[in-house]
């Protein structure tokens, strides 16, 4: 866009700035060397490799592979604005504002009722001061400046007290979050237990219905067509030995009519189980 | 919609904005009066922009009333928000204690959950076995 005179082929070259010069340091070779150094450093100090961020005294060509050190005086500039590493709330005094309320208590046991009371007082004062300002302005506009300054102080104080409250609220939210998590976990556990119980009951129910044909007396075998069928039965229900025989099965003899209705019931109960696990 | 504190902060900022708009309304729509015999209301030439756009007294008063009501409503909102700030009754020590307690409870609950999952898997395996048995039939 900028270099139209260079011809169309080159217009793209100027659209993005060049990458920073240190991109050349990130060769596979260097990366591998850095990883080895990191591993060595971790082994030397007996630390986990993931916790290591910086290796001190690294050689010149690898210096860009790790983040720069923290500023020594813990101050730095960002977009030409001074910043500190530890973000702290500026005190009112540091901002050149009169403090209206009492100094915030550093006492850990302090309740926050006082703070709420403080806020309410400030809010009421604001309204009152506005009313006064209106009164003054209607009589002598030249005097209004002072009241405006008062209002400003009130507003700034209000915001300050409010911001002091933020860490407290953050902790409160954390508690809320953890409580929610706990509830969700408990609910999940209960739900799993519920399904497990249901499944167990279903299994037991099945067990009582699908009893195996115990080794059948010879009179019954003839109906099945020989010993093969008895083998098949005992193979099919290995876990259900000794359970109650299905109705209609007397002494291992199953007459054809009963057999049909037995399998019909069987299908229904499996459908129930499938429904539970769907 | 943010958390309570942000709502409160916004409400206070809105109150300040309302102050300004009240001020503007009063300053621009009041009627013109002379306080003493020496005062006089200057006649504006037709092309000149008017400094004060006076409203009829009843309209002006109605506006005043509305603005005042809005101010009071906002003030009540602010006070309500202050009263409903979270954890007014808890001190920092209380909070830290309950965070620790909750951490413990979470660990226990997680253990129970894993146990339940294990049990579920077992039952599932058993059920699977039974199903296989049936299909072979």
From TrEMBL, chain A:
**GO MF term set:** transcription coregulator activity
Cite the entry's keywords alphabetically: Activator, Nucleus, Transcription, Transcription regulation
GO biological process per UniProt:
regulation of transcription by RNA polymerase II
Q: Where is this region: Disordered?
A: 1-21, 207-244
Compartment(s) where it occurs, according to its Swiss-Prot or TrEMBL record = Nucleus
Q: Which GO terms describe its cellular component?
A: core mediator complex; mediator complex
* The protein's role, per its UniProt record: Component of the Mediator complex, a coactivator involved in the regulated transcription of nearly all RNA polymerase II-dependent genes. Mediator functions as a bridge to convey information from gene-specific regulatory proteins to the basal RNA polymerase II transcription machinery. Mediator is recruited to promoters by direct interactions with regulatory proteins and serves as a scaffold for the assembly of a functional preinitiation complex with RNA polymerase II and the general transcription factors.
What is this protein identified as? Mediator of RNA polymerase II transcription subunit 7
TrEMBL record, chain B:
Cite the GO molecular-function annotations of the record: transcription coregulator activity
Q: Which GO terms describe its biological process?
A: regulation of transcription by RNA polymerase II
Instruction: Say which domain of life the source belongs to.
Output: Eukaryota
Locations listed in the record:
Nucleus
Q: Tell whether Nucleotidyltransferase is among the UniProt keywords.
A: no
Coiled-coil stretches = 92-119
Query: Which keywords are on file for this protein?
Result: Activator, Coiled coil, Nucleus, Transcription, Transcription regulation
Q: Which Gene Ontology terms of cellular component type are present?
A: mediator complex
One Pfam match: Med21
Role description: Component of the Mediator complex, a coactivator involved in the regulated transcription of nearly all RNA polymerase II-dependent genes. Mediator functions as a bridge to convey information from gene-specific regulatory proteins to the basal RNA polymerase II transcription machinery. Mediator is recruited to promoters by direct interactions with regulatory proteins and serves as a scaffold for the assembly of a functional preinitiation complex with RNA polymerase II and the general transcription factors.
Protein family: Belongs to the Mediator complex subunit 21 family.
Oligomeric form and interacting partners: Component of the Mediator complex.
Q: Report the protein name in the record.
A: Mediator of RNA polymerase II transcription subunit 21
Species the sequence originates in: Bombardia bombarda
Its ancestry begins with: Eukaryota, Fungi, Dikarya, Ascomycota, Pezizomycotina
């Amino acid at each position: 866009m900028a270099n139209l005179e260079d011809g169309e082929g080159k217009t793209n070259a100027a659209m993005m700035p060049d990458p920073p010069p240190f991109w050349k340091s990130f060769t596979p070779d260097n990366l591998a060397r850095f990883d080895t150094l990191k591993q060595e450093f971790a082994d030397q100090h007996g630390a986990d490799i993931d916790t290591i961020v910086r290796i001190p005294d690294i050689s010149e060509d690898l210096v860009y592979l790790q983040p720069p050190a923290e500023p020594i005086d813990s101050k730095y500039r960002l977009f030409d604005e001074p910043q500190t590493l530890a973000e702290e709330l500026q005190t009112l005094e540091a901002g050149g504002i009169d403090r209206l309320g009492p100094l915030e208590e550093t006492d850990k046991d302090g309740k926050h009722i006082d703070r709420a009371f403080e806020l309410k007082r400030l809010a009421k004062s604001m309204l009152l001061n506005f009313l006064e300002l209106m009164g003054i302005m209607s009589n002598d506009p030249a005097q209004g400046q002072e009241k405006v300054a008062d209002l400003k102080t009130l507003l700034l104080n209000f915001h300050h007290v409010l911001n002091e409250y933020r860490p407290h609220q953050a902790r409160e939210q954390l508690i809320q979050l953890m409580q929610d998590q706990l509830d969700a976990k408990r609910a999940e556990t209960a739900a799993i237990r519920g399904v497990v119980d249901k499944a167990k009951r279903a299994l037991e129910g099945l067990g009582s219905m699908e009893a195996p044909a115990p080794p059948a007396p010879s009179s019954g075998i003839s109906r099945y067509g020989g010993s093969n069928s008895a083998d098949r039965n005992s193979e099919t229900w290995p876990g259900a030995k000794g359970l109650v025989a299905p109705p209609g099965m007397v002494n291992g003899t199953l007459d054809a009519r009963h057999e049909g209705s037995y399998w019909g019931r069987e299908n229904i109960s499996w459908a129930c189980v499938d429904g539970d696990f769907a | 919609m943010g958390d309570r504190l942000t709502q409160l902060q916004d409400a206070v900022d809105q109150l300040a904005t309302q102050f300004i708009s009240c001020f503007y309304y009063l300053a621009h729509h009041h009627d013109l009066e002379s306080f003493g015999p020496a005062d006089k209301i200057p006649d504006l030439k037709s092309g000149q922009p008017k400094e004060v756009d006076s409203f009829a007294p009843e309209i002006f008063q109605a506006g005043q009333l509305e603005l005042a009501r809005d101010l009071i409503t906002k003030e009540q909102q602010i006070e309500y928000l202050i009263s409903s700030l979270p954890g007014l009754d808890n001190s920092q020590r209380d909070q830290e204690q309950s965070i620790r307690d909750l951490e413990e409870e979470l660990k226990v609950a997680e253990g129970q959950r894993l146990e339940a999952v294990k049990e579920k898997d077992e039952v599932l395996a058993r059920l699977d076995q039974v199903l296989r048995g049936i299909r072979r039939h």
